[in-house]
Every structure is written in structure tokens, then in C-alpha cells.
Specification:
Layout lengths: L3 H24 L3 E8 L7 H9 L6 E2 L7 H4 L14 E2 L17 H5 L3 H16 L4 H4 L6 E5 L4 H7 L9 H6 L1 H12 L5 E4 L5 H8 L5 E6 L34 E8 L1
Parallel strand pairs: 4-5, 4-6
Antiparallel strand pairs: 1-7, 2-3, 6-7
Helix pairs in contact: 5-9
Length: 264
């Protein structure tokens, strides 16, 4: 038989082993195993985005005519009321193309969905594919969605059009920022934490910080038009931001979406 001292020593060793395992689980490295993105400059995949960065490609262009009439809003004088003094920005291509049936969404519902939600579904699907994960395998597990998202132009634009006959029940779920995160969890069957984070420019950073080894959608931003609230915000005339302390203090129009699939 073991003496009381030896039994106490074995108990201490077992407790120490459990403590070590708990500490390892809390500090275990996190691996990013899948990514997808949409960025200006035709960067519709991580490799393409890396090519934009590596080659120093300028992705800033003149505001496309299918977004809004830049001539109607532009004025070179920054102090001119109701106008904007830049004609440049970063924009995504083919933003109007979407396959709703792939995600179990009817064409009627897709019409009133904010394109930000469409982008989220597309890049999340691609991030899962890039990670070699299938939707069926993940459905019902504790995967979570941490979504960084800020601003919503599509809903107000629809209301300002004056075509109230086009407003339907899908207007709410298709434009609410909190519904964007829930749509991802519902579509892919995730049962873990689900939240939309809006901390302005740091939304994507805070979303990644809150996520712990779970599927993470970072940032999505889309601009179909020029919002009056932004018309007099400090802007960079040529639309190009430079690292401080170089000249470049102000805002620039930009659109992007990215998703990461992570495991611990």
C-alpha cells in the first residue's frame, strides 16, 4: 500500500497535469486555414489581393457611373455646401451579380437584400471551400460568426427612391446590420456565438479579437451612392490615403469584404 505521503504526491502530480492541459488549451496557437475576399483592383481572391499589394497596383478609380452621378455631386471647393470634392474611390466590380438559389434565397427576397449581405454569403462560402470544409460537416456544430460591419446605404436609398410599392417584409431582414450575422449562422447551420460588431473603422479588428478559433467574417463595406452625411467629411481630393506622417489625412470612399475560417 502507498503511504499517505505518496498518495498526496500522486494527487498533486495529477492536479498539476490537469492544470498544464488547461493552460495549453487556453494558449494554443490559432491557425487560419481558409480565406476569401473582395477588394478594389479586381482582387477577388487572396492571391489576387496579394498581387495588388506586391506590385503596388493603384486600385483607386473614378466613381463609376452606375453608382451615382459624380458630376452632380462634385465641386472642387471643399467649402461648397452639399457637394463632395473628390471624384475618386475604391470600388468592387459586378456587385449586382448574385446567385440567391445557391443559398436557399428566393429571387424576390434577394432584390431587397443589402449587397453587403450578398457579399458576406459569397466570401464565407469561398472561405469554407478554401479551408476544405463542407457546409454539411459544419452544420449543427458550435462554429461562430463574428462580423465587423458598419453603415448601411442600401435601405435608405430604397426609401428615398419614393417607390414604396417595392417595400416588403424582406426589407427588414435584408438591411439590418444585426441580421447580416444571423443570416450567416442560419445559412450555414452554425450554432455557436453570432454577433455583428460596429466600432467604426476598427470593426474588423475588434471582430477578429473577439473570435477565438471560430469561423470569422471580418469586414464588409459597400457604397451604392453618396450619402449626404459624408459629403462634407474631411476627404482626400485624389482618393489616395498615405501612411502618416505623409500627406493623406482624411477619408476616402472604399468597398471591401473578407472572410477567414480559423481553428484552434
Amino acid at each position: 500500500m502507498l503511504s499517505p505521503l505518496k498518495r498526496a504526491l500522486l494527487a498533486l502530480e495529477e492536479m498539476q497535469s490537469r492544470l498544464d492541459a488547461l493552460e495549453r488549451s487556453q494558449s494554443e496557437p490559432i491557425a487560419i486555414i481558409g480565406m476569401a475576399c473582395r477588394f478594389p483592383g479586381n482582387a477577388d481572391a487572396p492571391d489576387a489581393f496579394w498581387g495588388v499589394l506586391r506590385n503596388g497596383i493603384d486600385a483607386i478609380t473614378e466613381i463609376p457611373s452606375d453608382r451615382w452621378d459624380v458630376d452632380a455631386y462634385y465641386h472642387p471647393d471643399p467649402e461648397h455646401p452639399g457637394k463632395m470634392y473628390t471624384r475618386q474611390g475604391g470600388f468592387l466590380r459586378e456587385i449586382d451579380r448574385f446567385d440567391p438559389q445557391l443559398f436557399g434565397i428566393s429571387p424576390r427576397e434577394a432584390v431587397t437584400m443589402d449587397p453587403q449581405q450578398r457579399l458576406l454569403l459569397e466570401v464565407s462560402w469561398e472561405a469554407l471551400e478554401d479551408a476544405g470544409q463542407s457546409q454539411d460537416r459544419l452544420a449543427g456544430n458550435q462554429s461562430g460568426v463574428f462580423l465587423g460591419i458598419t453603415s448601411n446605404d442600401y435601405g435608405p436609398l430604397s426609401l428615398q427612391s419614393g417607390e414604396f410599392s417595392r417595400i416588403d417584409p424582406y426589407q427588414i431582414t435584408g438591411n439590418a446590420l444585426n441580421a447580416a450575422a444571423g443570416r450567416l449562422s442560419y445559412t450555414f447551420g452554425f450554432h455557436g456565438p453570432c454577433m455583428a460588431i460596429d466600432t467604426a473603422c476598427s470593426s474588423s479588428l475588434v471582430a477578429v479579437h473577439l473570435a477565438c478559433g471560430l469561423p470569422t467574417v471580418t469586414m464588409v463595406e459597400w457604397m451604392p451612392w453618396q450619402h449626404p452625411l459624408y459629403e462634407q467629411a474631411p476627404r482626400i481630393a485624389d482618393g489616395r490615403i498615405a501612411p502618416l506622417p505623409a500627406p493623406g489625412l482624411g477619408l476616402t470612399l472604399n468597398a471591401s469584404a473578407a472572410a477567414k475560417f480559423r481553428i484552434a
